[in-house]
Write a structure and sequence with these properties.
Elements: E1 8-11, H1 17-28, E2 32-36, H2 50-61, E3 65-69, H3 76-90, E4 95-98, H4 113-141, E5 144-149, H5 152-155, H6 162-182, E6 187-195, H7 209-218, H8 227-234, E7 245-249, E8 252-255, H9 273-285, H10 294-297
Parallel strand pairs: 1-2, 1-4, 2-3, 4-5, 5-6, 6-7
Antiparallel strand pairs: 7-8
The structure holds 1,4-dihydronicotinamide adenine dinucleotide.
1,4-dihydronicotinamide adenine dinucleotide is lined by residues 12-13, 15-19, 36-40, 42, 44, 51, 72-74, 99-102, 122, 126, 149, 151, 194-196, 198-201.
Length: 303
């Protein structure tokens, strides 16, 4: 069994869903855990200290060490308090899991600046704030591990999620940048793109028998199935793994691609709009990507 004994892990959004299972699994592996959660709705409305406290009780009842924290990831000062809570409670911080999240789904033509900002603030800005707050500790101790939650809504695409997709793909670039900038201090940064049956995707309609059958299959994507990869990445066994994007769906683990040139054309005399139309585009078109959504790419049932 992999041990995280002596390590302190901050899990944001750990009051429910995937984050709760991260917190339970990290504690079961021996880590001290800061269970951060503002206890808000899927849309990010309201707050409740109950969920973070309840997860802490679960952990301490089974002999683990955890403290609750109800500061929001979405502001710089409060994000700093989350990291400070780890240092004050356990004397150090070793792992940051940027997991907190909300959704404000709208088709792009209806998306308000407020719904754009709210989602960017929690996902992209929140991931930056918490990661940046931990960076001086990681730098001075010359160790540290970041795990950020991304999504195939950003990596591939999805309808009605421009704010969320932009934030989630932005997080992969943030992770890669941290991996590059902090490699010299032995700090690692990786992303996990989960598929899990949580309240976030629990609103799918189940009116027809087909929809009911589909939802039953989706329920096999248990939130607890994401945690083993996170525990591994947090451990010293993953000390040479950084800058990667993994996906987890029930019993499947994927290594996701990262963008590289796919095909090129060149002309010694340069291009004109007309020669681009007549030569470059016909040569490149066969390699264009379809307007795929996540479900077009992950088109088989969870295993
Ligand atoms: P969830 O809605 O069950 O959990 C998210 C938690 O974040 C909630 O407990 C909420 O109170 C907390 N939270 C929201 N705003 C916060 C803030 N400002 N500060 C601190 N905590 C805050 O959702 P789920 O499904 O467990 O998602 C966890 C992560 O995984 C999210 O980043 C989500 O985008 C990502 N994800 C989930 C997928 C899925 O299939 N469930 C698919 C792709 C990505």
């Amino acid at each position: 069994m992999i041990s995280l004994a002596g390590k302190t892990v901050v899990v944001t959004g750990a009051g429910g869903g995937i984050g709760r299972d991260f917190a339970l699994a990290m504690a079961a592996a021996g880590a001290n855990v800061v269970v951060n959660d503002i206890g808000t709705s899927v849309k990010g409305e309201g707050s409740d200290a109950g969920p973070a406290a309840a997860v802490c009780r679960e952990i301490t009842r089974s002999g683990g060490k955890a403290v609750p924290n109800t500061d929001s990831v979405a502001q710089w000062e409060s994000a700093n308090r989350i990291v400070q809570c780890a240092v004050d409670s356990f004397g150090r911080i070793d792992v940051v899991i940027n997991n907190a999240g909300i959704l404000r789904d709208r088709f792009f033509f209806n998306l308000s600046p407020e719904d754009w900002r709210a989602v960017i603030d929690v996902h992209l800005n929140g991931s930056f704030y918490v990661a940046r707050a931990a960076a001086p500790h990681f730098k001075s101790q010359e160790s540290g591990c970041y795990i950020h939650m991304t999504s195939t809504s950003g990596l591939v695409g999805n309808l009605g999620q421009a704010n969320y997709s932009a934030a989630k793909l932005g997080i992969t670039a943030l992770s890669k940048s941290i991996a590059l900038d902090m490699a010299r201090y032995k700090v690692r940064s990786n992303c996990i793109s989960p598929f899990a049956w949580s309240r976030m995707i629990g609103s799918i309609p189940t009116e027809t028998p087909d929809q009911q059958a589909r939802v039953e299959k989706l329920k096999s994507m248990e939130t607890a199935k994401i945690a083993p990869l996170a525990v591994f990445l947090a451990s010293d066994l993953a000390s040479d793994i950084s800058g990667q994007i993994f996906a987890v769906r029930a019993n499947e683990i994927f290594l996701m691609s990262q963008s590289r040139p796919l095909r090129s054309v060149h002309r010694a005399e340069g291009w004109t709009p007309a020669s681009i139309a007549s030569q470059a585009i016909p040569a490149l078109r066969a390699h264009f990507y379809a307007l795929d959504r996540s479900q077009d790419v992950f088109s088989w049932d969870p295993i």
